[in-house]
Amino acid sequence: MKCPICGCENPNNYKFCHNCGNPLIYNDYRLNNTPHISLNSKKLIIIGYIIAILFGWSGFILNFLFGSYGFIGFIGLFFPGFMLNNKDSKIRKHAYIQLAIMIIGIIMTFLVLFR
Fold first, then answer.
1. What is the mean pLDDT of residues 33-46?
2. Domain span at residue 20?
3. What predicted TM-score, i.e. pTM, was given to this entire model?
């Protein structure tokens, strides 16, 4: 049985894909060809947005709140970069959005630092 999410071939008696862990038993939700994001993918996307906001906007926020010039934005670029290598197009779409959030935050920090 082929996994509808990752395309990995699984034995017919498997209930879950041995590659991505998604259920191989079809229900009405999947029969309608409705896009599906697994729970692990949702967690990955949420963590990515948290990292994008914290790392991308940290220098700007620290300067605004405390007058400090702490700048750690570039470290956070690794996580969305990691997500861009995923096979799932929805995860890649969110990775591009997260990169945009981070780059805007980094640019705002530079504008505040060099005003």
1. 68
2. 1-36
3. 0.57
